[in-house]
Specification:
Layout (H helix, E strand, L loop, with lengths): L1 E4 L5 E7 L4 E6 L4 E4 L4 H9 L3 H9 L5 E2 L5
Antiparallel strand pairs: 1-2, 2-3, 3-4, 4-5
Helix pairs in contact: 1-2
Length: about 70
Amino acid sequence: MIRNRLHNHLIKTVSYDKDTKTMVVELTQGNVVKYSPVPYELYSTLANSRFPEKVYRHRVMNVMPVITGESE
C-alpha cells in the first residue's frame, strides 16, 4: 500500500492499494473513509495536487463509491 501524508486542514493522509484499487482517506478530524474502485490516476492526482482538498471535494467525495462497514 502506498501512503502519503498531506499538509492540508481537511486531509491528513491518503493511501492506495493497487491490488484492490482502494483509496483510504484519513481526515484531520480522525474519520477514515475508504473508496473503491478508484483509478490510480485519481489517487495520484489527489496525492500530488497543490490543492488536494479541491480535488477531494470535486472528484472523490460524493462521487466515488464508499466502502462501508470497515474500519482502518
